[in-house]
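User: I'm writing a short methods note and want a consistent example. For Haloacid dehalogenase-like hydrolase superfamily protein, I'll paste the sequence; you return only the structure tokens, no commentary, since I'll be parsing the reply automatically.
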Amino acid sequence: MESCSFRAATAPSPFPSAPSSSSSSPRAPCPIFRFPRPRKGRQIGVRRRASGFDAFPPLPGKVFVDEAIGAEYGEGFETFRMDGPLKVDVDYLNEKLQECFLQRIRHAMKPDEAFGLIFSWDNVIADTDSLKLNAWRQLALEEGKDIPSAAHVRKSILHGAADHVLRKVLYWAKEEAKMEKLKARLIELYYENLFKLDTPVEGLREWLDAVQTAGIPCAVASSLDRRCMIKALDRMALSKYFKAIVTDEDDMESIANRFLSAAMKLDRKPSKCVVFEDDPRGVTAAHNCTMMAVALIGAHPAYELVQADLAIAKYSELSVINLRRLFANKGISFMDLQKQIIEKSPPKRRLTVDTIF
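Assistant:
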């Protein structure tokens, strides 16, 4: 008999509780944190701030970098097992993450539970464009600089790497030491603004309530540090909705690899997952992983998100039935009436009596 381990729909949350700080104890001098993990041969010290850094000092992460899309040819990443390294790619996960017998029976009765939802962090869960703009404006104010209001400058600030913006767009830094100092301060300002954020994207909480009622597992994928991600989700009261999270500690080298890691943690085949993204690069990464993509119009206009399987302006436009239709409407001739098979009832037989003379 085929064995199958079932996880209850109300699985315990993977998020550890944030440590509480006593307000009665006197505040110690503001220390400098040094992180043991080097990044490109350097260690960045970030000063703890009173706006939220007391419990969780942030790691630099990959906030202001231009990440690779990944999985262009179905490639994945390596994970390590007791018997050696294991190569995990799109085809491997689609083949190995098969439903067992009991799961097939359950999903036949509740088909929505067969899906997995993966939410990107930027502008899908939190309005990170505002956080980035505020960080750049605060940095400009501290440095006595001005940020041009041109459209291409704003686009570079929101979607470009900090090195490129500082050196080629704003021309604020030429020396490497100055560059590192401005980048460290920019990241610090971003996290300070992040820990003040307590409101998710409009309509997200109602949508997650509907998804949770339907029993669909959800994951969130981000390049933030895990502790910072947990604190931000707790502040917005969203931790209970996510069964898994993918963060900087997972060491994923591309957007697609984060999506594949989230599918593994949800125990769902990539071909049964739906990615919620706001960026055309994220939509491409989802399709490279054989996942469906739902794009949120806002940070990018609708004409830049035409590759998505579904584009919405807000979460209130969605219903759980839309997820089924994403997987049902396959093929370019789905609605072509000339190619649809029309079943006709057979003609009635006329009963006759043969008379032999």
